[in-house]
Specification:
Elements (H helix, E strand, L loop, with lengths): L1 E3 L5 H11 L7 H12 L7 E8 L2 E9 L9 E7 L9 H15 L4 E7 L3 H9 L3 E12 L18 E5 H8 L1 H18 L11 H7 L5 E11 L4 E9 L6 E9 L8 H16 L3 E7 L3 H10 L2 E12 L3
Parallel strand pairs: 4-5, 10-11
Antiparallel strand pairs: 1-2, 2-3, 3-4, 5-12, 6-11, 6-12, 7-8, 8-9, 9-10
Helix pairs in contact: 5-6
Length: about 325
Amino acid sequence: MIREAAAADYPAVAAVLTAANPRHPVSVEALEASAKKTRQHPKGLHLAQWVAEQNGEIVGFAGVAQWAGSFHPDRYHVQLAVPPQLTRQGIGTRLAQTVQQHLQTRNAREVQAGAYEDAPQAVQFLERLGFREVAREFDNVLTLSEYQPDRWGKHRQLPPGYRLLTLEKFKAEQGEDAALNAFLTVFNEARADEPRTTPAQPYTLDEIRVYTTHPSALPHGIVLVVTDSGEVAALSELWRDLTDPTRLNTGLTGTARHHRRRGLALAAKLAGLELARQHGARTVWTSNASTNVPMLAINTHLGFKPEPAFIEMQWGSVD
């Protein structure tokens, strides 16, 4: 039976999503925060979720959502998950049919989905539905016990006129709104210049406020490079993993356009890794597009090791 998902289903949904993709376990808290953010977003973002039940047990999940960061009124993102021991029983097919019917009522013109390269049956399933590969993204994992910070000592030194501090300390200095606005400028520039399959929509001040107070936010986990005049020149983010206290996840790392090629983002990233060590983390995870050659090279030199690629797939187009 396929039915609409309710908040009470989230513990079972989190278990299904984690079983389907154990490299990225999902918590109930993260599901609740994501649903709340989407439903309350001022752009009126769409969210629909379903579960598959067998004998009263939830055995599959499907979701359709619009993302603020890549919003287009006719673009949707789909997630579909069935635990590996329950595949090839028609559960995914029935969920996909429900999703397709829903998207038809929405007159969707573009649908984004994806699967990992070490799950070829999932890739083939999407291909049969008419999806095509548009990009690949790699998880990279650094085991902090193998990290050698002494090799990077000179790279932690900033040019004159710059200093390192956390977003929390920057807010204490500048006031919350002024600090977030300065952070927002470089955040939007860095996102816009990242290799991506859909154009990055700029965040607003209200959106960045929600972003930086997500349940996975790590106190002092966003490291900034700031000029003497109070401008944010570069940033590197670390986030808690809500299912594993020994793991941290890297968010955005980037530099404002007119401050690039001075090693600022690398210095911020190295400061973040030192914070991770102090935090007691065992691993740091990051994700990079296969076309983001400079960042992949930096991560490789730092000791990050690649996981199987996530294959981004697309049906239709809004272009």
